[in-house]
Amino acid sequence: MGPGGHFRDRGSGLVFILSAPSGAGKTTLIKKVMEQLGGLQFSISYTTRSPRTNEEEGKDYYFVTPSTFQQMVERGAFLEWAEVLGNHYGTAMPNLEELGLQGRDLILDIDIQGAQKVLRQIGQAVSIFILPPSPEVLKERLLRRGLDASHVIERRLANAKKEIGEAHRYHYVILNETLQEAVETLKAIIIAERCRKDKSSIFDRKMKEWENTDGKNHC
Ligand code: 5GP
Question: Which structural domain, as residue segments, surrounds residue 165?
Fold first, then answer.
């Protein structure tokens, strides 16, 4: 393991919340970072929205009916849930202790309402907002990906404006001008958070090793 290797490859049950207007490039960014950094698990949300052509059940989302979703709400199965553009989305209750033992951190891709709800419940969660370079670039990206009808794109753009107005509430903001730079920045944030002494699982263990030495050279 190279310098800093431990923090590159191992999580400890931390929660990283990522929010961005759709089209800001969040999905690709998360995918790239998960390929390059170890110890990350993506939280697969439940949604009542229909799958897009490129989406897979159990990989991108669990696609459920409104009545199944409602039953899950009533059962308390969600850490948080929200309505976004007419559909329901919910984050399954995570077992952070278990994830910590497995050396994993959790990535949540959720909207601004969900982010605030999670932060209220998990004080240690780290929130990150992905900012598209400009309104023009966002519109162009939404048109280019060809997934939505034009009236949906207009709604997404109006929603984006509202969401960007909330970016100041987040711990970190990443400007997604080029994918590579945004990937490096997100990796740097995750590694830095893993090194924080109040969040680091190895800090206490290492300190004990030092306390148990008498300062003499035993080589
Ligand atoms: P999309 O339909 O484009 O996949 O997602 C629309 C919005 O819903 C995005 O902002 C996405 O981050 C958000 N979202 C996805 N899953 C969840 C979730 O479990 N909870 C909340 N609150 N928002 C979610």
Answer: 5-43+104-209
